[in-house]
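Table S4 entry, OmpA family protein.
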Amino acid sequence: MAELDDAVSQEPPVWAIFGDLMSGLVGVFVLLLVWALGFQLELAQNLEEEVARRQAEEQRRMALEEALADPLATGRVTLRDGRIGISGSVLFSLNSDQLQSEGRALLKTLIGPLRVFLDDRGEMLMVSGFTDDLPIQKGNSRYDDNWELSAQRALTVTRALVEEGMPPEMVFAAAFGAQHPTVPNVDNASRAQNRRVEMAPVPRGTTNHE
């Protein structure tokens, strides 16, 4: 009997076990609280950085739109989803890749704000040529198809930009022919809209230039 009493007396009291358990739970709670606070701080910092990035992006976009205000108002230029579209009739005569004086003058006004826009974003400019869906009339042009015409027009605009001050490493040309029309090719007016050159900022590394 005495041995049983000694064994019982050697067992830790229940309150001590409960205290250890509560201490462990408090420790876990503190760790969770610290983790939650850290996560919230990181989330708030990321949100603040994202807001600042978007504000800077909006300022650059507004500066570009301000530079484009006059050509946008006169319909010579469009701005959709960050892509600057220039009417083919402003840049070229029908089935021609020779840049008109009006088109060169317009390109010259865009170089300053475009360079700032691209430098701030660490991007480069893709100049894309587009045509309508009418096939090239054989005998009336030196181009076999719309792909060749759109490619040469994109190259002409690219070269003009470089000649007027755009760094060569910041611009490249692309051709899309009659693909990706802005509106269905149903009449002369719609086809005139699709004959265009677009300029769009793209991330560096999109091409193998570097």
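The CA atoms of residues 138 and 144 lie 7 Å apart.
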